[in-house]
Amino acid sequence: MSFEKLGLIKPLLSAITEMGYEHPTLIQKRAIPLVLAKSDVFATAQTGTGKTAAFGLPILQRLRKTEADETRLLKAVILSPTRELSIQIFEDLQKYAQNMKVECAVLVGGKDIASQQRAMKKGVDIVIATPGRFLEHVENGLNIENIEFFVLDEADRMLDMGFSKEIRKVHPLLPKRHQTLLFSATYSDKVRKLSKLVLNKPAFIETSKKNSTVDTINQVAYMVDTNRKAGLLAYLIGSRNYPQVLVFTRTKVSADTLVEELKKDGLKCDVIHGDKTQAKRLKTLQKFKDGSIKVLVATDIASRGLDIEELPYVINYELPSVPEDYVHRVGRTGRAGREGEAISLLDIYEKYDIKEIEKVIGMKIDKEVVEGFEPDPNIRRKDVDEKRLKGEHKKPSAKKERNYSKNNSNRPETKKQMKVTKKKRKTTKRD
Predict the structure, then answer these.
(1) Residue 5 C-alpha from the chain's centroid
(2) pLDDT category, 196, cuts 50, 70, 90?
(3) Are strands 203-206 and 76-79 parallel, antiparallel or unpaired?
(4) What is the per-residue pLDDT for 306?
(5) Is-contact 183 54, C-beta < 8 A?
(6) Residue 417 lies in a domain
(7) How far, in Å, CA of 149 to CA of 224, rounded?
(8) What is the mean pLDDT of residues 90-114?
(9) How many other C-beta atoms lie within 10 A of the C-beta of residue 225?
(10) What is the enclosing helix (H) or strand (E) of 366?
(11) Bridge-based pairing state of the strands 179-184 and 203-206
(12) Are residues 51 and 156 in the same domain?
C-alpha cells in the first residue's frame, strides 16, 4: 500500500517523498484512515514504528487552508511527556507541512512563558506541549475553545512521570466535540483507565504484542562484574568500532561517573540527564546527531523522544528500575524497519532483574561472556543470590519487624509502655 492510497493530499505526499518515506508502516496504514474519518483512536505500537506520522499527517490534512484563508485559531493540541519529544514532534510536523500554510508552536518548560504567550497571540494552528506547561498557559488565558484534535503521545510515559493530574484537568476544559487520539508504546492498567476517561467509542489499534520490541533489534546480554562494566563498555565500542552508541544508566551519578571513565579511554562522549539545562541537553543531542560525539550517556529522561536516523547501538550499562522502560530504551534503535542491536551489561544481581524484563517483552535474551571480562566466581556470594531468588532480600514487612521474642529487650515498646515512658520523662524533666 502507498501513502497515496491512504488518501493523503499532494502537498503531504510531496513532503514525505522528499523526506525519503516510501511505504507506510503498519501503524500508519491503520491509523491514518481512522483519523481522516474523524474517529477517536486508541493505538498501541512499538517505539520507532512511525507514530508521529500516523497522527501528524492526517491532522495536517484536515487543517489544510485555502490561499484566501488567513485565519489562525488553535485547532490541535499534542501533549508529550518530555521537552525533547515535543521538539522532535514539532520538527517532524514542520517537515510534513513544508508545502502547506500551517503554523506550529512548542510550549515546554525551561523557556520564558511570556515570550511563548506573545508567539501564541500571533496565531498558531497546532501546539505541541508538555502537560504542565500547557496547563499553565490555559490557566493564564490560552483560548482552547476551538480545539478539534487532542493528542496524547507516549501516554504511558506521561502517566509514569506523574502527569495524570494535568491531563485530567485539561480534558474537561476542551470543547465537547473534539477528536482524541491516544498513542502508547506499552499497554497498562493506567493507560486503559485514562483511555476510558478521554476517548469516545474509540477504534482500537494494536500492531504488536503488548510491551514487545521490534523484530529488527538483535538483543544480547553480557555477564560482567560490576567494577568491570566501564572497561567492558569501552572495549566493545573500541574493538568493534561502533560508530555511534547511546548508553543508558539508572542514575544521574552513574551517568556522570561513566562519562568521566570513558573520556579517560579517549572516547568522545557527553551526558544528558535531569540536572542539565534544556539548552545544554539540546546542544548535546545535536552534537550526537551530527556525529561530533560518538557516545551519548543518558538516564531514562532520553529513552523517549530521541529520533536519530540509523542509530545502530543501544547499550544498557545498568538495567532500568521499571522493566517496561527497557522497551523504550531499546526502541531508540531498529527504527523504521532498520536493523539495530541492544546490548545489556549484567552484573551478578541484574541477572535476576533481566528475568522480569524477559517476562515483559515475552522473549529470552541471550546471555554471553566476553573473553577477558569473565565474571569472577569468587564474588558470587551464593548466600545473597539464594536470598534474592527466594525474595528474602526485600525489606521485611512491618508485621515481621514487630515479631520480636518476648525476651528480646530491644523490641519496640507497646503503646501503653510508650505512654508510661513519656510520663516518666516529663517527671524527670520537672525534677
Answers:
(1) 32
(2) very high
(3) unpaired
(4) 60
(5) yes
(6) no
(7) 49
(8) 91
(9) 15
(10) strand 366-368
(11) unpaired
(12) yes
